[in-house]
Each structure stands twice: as structure tokens, then as C-alpha cells.
Amino acid sequence: MNKEDYDLVILGAGPAGLQAAIHAARRKVSVLVLGKLPKSSIHNVHLENYCCIDGDAGADLLRQARTKAKESGAVFLQEDVTKVTSADGRFLVEAESNRSFKAKTLVLAMGISRNKLGLKGEKRLLGQGISYCVDCDAGFYKGESVAVIGCESAAISGALTMLFYADEVHLICEKLETADYLMEKMKESYIQVHEGRKVSEIVGENEVEGLMLDDGQRIDVKGVFIELGAKGATTLAANLGVALDTESMKYIQTNKKQETNVPGVYAAGDICGPPWQVAKAIGEGCVAGLEAAAYAKKL
Fold this sequence. Notes:
The protein has helices at residues 15-25, 58-72, 134-137, 153-162, 180-188, 233-240, 278-298; strands spanning 5-11, 31-34, 46-47, 56-57, 75-77, 81-87, 90-95, 100-108, 130-131, 145-149, 168-173, 192-195, 199-203, 210-213, 218-219, 223-226, 265-267. By secondary structure, the chain is of the alpha/beta class.
């Protein structure tokens, strides 16, 4: 097997993804985990309502789980995922360093995005020029001026994608933090970078007309894409045709085996909906890891 090929690729290094890695690797399938431990929602908290522990630091539990998964044979790469596609019965996962990996099966365990700007008008103008998904809405802004807000891989890859659609692309962030590959691609492009700046106001009544930056500069744009972290779970899932829950369209829909509607794709943790509890995430990760390993062995 090529070193870039795996039986299972797990997207996310939080409790759900780590538990899935432990169980799948112990079933003697090759496992790659993509994700950054500090991005987990429990990294900076102390857990007091999880069975058998008493106020343990989330960061310590994550590190212990990663050690167990490594001892079982799982491989870890601390990178964000920028794209996931499927072809010929396999899945192709692209990471921010421009490395790509083939997999027989996937476990989606990236958690949920809780990051919003929190500005006046942000909620009101959602769908009227504000979007949280470049891959979903880029086509609406052909020939227009747009802004992408964020500092990490999702924002930079989103801005690069918008170059195929928009006439003018602005990237607004406080401090760029991404892989060298994406940074070089951005520098070679005509993206207008406003580093060290924050958005102070979204301009527009019924639709987005522009942005005001904290230094008083106004940027006239028709579209604003807010990408304040890694690529969102629902964005990546949409590329695969994974169904969301019919009530809120925010969470990935699974059955009791943590299967999605796409064969070979499983999901676990917060992206499957509330409650936002470690106990739930670990239980679902266990099931997803076992089921994904069994699926890979049949191929």
C-alpha cells in the first residue's frame, strides 16, 4: 500500500475522532487522523461530568487518547483538511500542506463551528451577502467583489477558490496562520490581503454593500465569507453528498451504526447534533471506528 493510502482517514482529533482511531486501529486497519488537538472544544477546559474522572484537564485527556491511538497503530498529521471528494469507490482527502490521501472509508469527527464575528447585521444578512461556506456559495458572486474573513487554512483556501469566480478578492485577518504551501499560493495570487485588521461593521440594509475595518477603511463588496477556523464539517460533508438533519440542516444525519447516507462515510461527535458532551462523542466515536474498520475490511 502506498504510504499516502489508508483504509480509514479520520477527520478530527477531538474525543470522537481519537476514540474512533483507537478502536479502528486495534482492528488492524491502517488509520490516519487529520486534525489539531488544540482545536478541540475540550482542549482548554476541565471535565467534571464525565464518568471516572474528576476535573481532569481536557488537554491531558486528548494527549492520553492520542498516545493510545498511536500505540494501536494510528498515524497522526496535525493539519487541517481543505477538501474531500470521492471517485472510483475511494475518497480523496486534501490537507493544507498540499498532501493528499486516499481512503476506503472516512469518519467525520470535526466538531461544529461556533465561530462567528458577532457583528450587528451578521445574522440579518445571512444569505443576503454573508456566507459561512465558500464551496457552497461561490457561484453567486461571479464578477463581483468579495471579502473572506479569517486567518487559517479555511479562509486562505476559500480566498483562492474565489479567484475563479470574483473579480476582486479581499482577505481580512489579524495574523495569517497556515501551511507554507497555501501561504505561497496566496502570495502569488492577486488576493488583496489586509493583515492586522479587524472588521468593525458590515455595511448594508437588505444586502451586503461593504465592510468597515477597524482603521476606518471601507471596502465595497457584495459578498462576505466568514471562515474563522478549519473547514467546517457541513462544508466538507456537502462535497460528498452527505445528508444533514432535516430540521435544522446543521448536523450530519446518522443511524445507530454512525453511518451517513453515503456508503463508507461515518460521523461522530458534535457534528451529529446535541448534547455537546464528551460522553456522547466518545460513545459515537467508538461505534464509528468499529463500523468503519469492518467496512474497510470488506473491500
